[in-house]
Amino acid sequence: MQPILQVDNLTIGIRGEEGEFQPVNGVSFEVFPGETLGIVGESGCGKSVTSLSIMGLLPQGIGRIAEGSIRFQGRDLTKLPAKELRKLRGNEISMIFQEPMTSLNPVYTIGEQLGEQIRLHLGLSKREAKERCIDLLQMVGIPRAEGIVKEYPHQLSGGMRQRVMIAMAMSCQPQLLIADEPTTALDVTIQAQILDLMRKVKHTNGTSIILITHDLGIVAEMCDRVVVMYAGQIIEQAPVRELFNHPAHPYTKGLIASIPKLEEQKRRLYSIKGSVPHPSSMPSGCRFAPRCEFFRESCRVAPPLFSLNQTHQSRCWLAEEGGREHGGDIAAST
């Protein structure tokens, strides 16, 4: 099966006050038709910047793709003219942004914003676009859709705004949907409804999904494969069950160990010491070394992405030595 999306050696440059730094460095992954790929990691690991580069939404004059390619159905998006990219964006590739209140225009009604995209990409009349808007809002479980199309974003709850964003993203039945933290700041009941809605969209339309999140519970529930990012690099990737059952990288083990467990009683929850380095001051060698409980002299040299098997990779020198049995049980040591 051919991948629908191929990201190869992606490096992104962001211009700052002290020169250009790289929040994403040498990232490569694939997304296959009908697959949900999870991208996980702490804030500042480069997840959202990667998604914005796929959409061609890096800030102009500040961000650029310094190296690599992004191929969607064989077309390199980094080389497409702006006009062609606009036709693709929102039509064949759509995105659900992290905070709908900042993504929806406060001075236009829901119907105006949703209808504009439909008319632009599908060529429908104003009346046909309005009917399509109502159908989409009903599809995502919004009650009294006929009234909602006349309302403004501030009149809706957070969960309702997120549903509008999903309706907008799915309005042209895209082949690839990028969801950047789609359930952040929503209560658990609304989170479950949003995830069920995304699952329904995937099965109904055969849409491929890139799900960006820091919540490993959502990853376990939603994803087929997982990419773990740290400090702008992929440090592990594997099928979702293998990643949870046999994590190979100390960072991945730390993320899993930090999940509270109902059957365990601890005075203190596990946490990874330290914080993600700023892209402008990355450590030499392994980028996780300053925070790693298994640091050794070999970590002063940057490790490549080792293959543990055909589907599991880890950027750690322990992987070269047999990986899993060398890493130990982090949870047991806390």
Compact overview of the structure:
This protein has 334 residues and is an alpha/beta fold. Helices cover 33% and strands 22% of the residues.
Description:
There is one protein chain. This protein is α/β, with parallel strands linked by helices and 334 residues long. The protein folds into two domains: 5-223, P-loop containing nucleotide triphosphate hydrolases (Rossmann fold), CATH 3.40.50; 228-333, no CATH class. Helix content is 33%, strand content 22%. The protein has 13 helices and twelve strands. It has helices at residues 47-55, 82-88, 100-103, 110-122, 126-139, 145-148, 158-170, 188-205, 216-222, 240-245, 250-257, 317-320, 324-327, and strands spanning 5-16, 19-31, 36-40, 63-72, 75-76, 93-96, 176-180, 208-213, 225-230, 233-239, 306-307, 313-314. The chain has an eight-stranded mixed sheet, sandwiched between helices. A four-stranded antiparallel sheet has the order 2-1-4-5. A hairpin with a 2-residue loop joins strand 4 (63-72) and strand 5. The longest helix has 18 residues, at 188-205. The chain is globular and about 70 Å long. The model is unreliable at 323-334 (pLDDT under 50).
Could you name the key traits of this structure?
alpha/beta; 8-stranded mixed sheet; single chain; Rossmann fold; 334 residues; disordered C terminus; 4-stranded antiparallel sheet; 2 domains; 13 helices
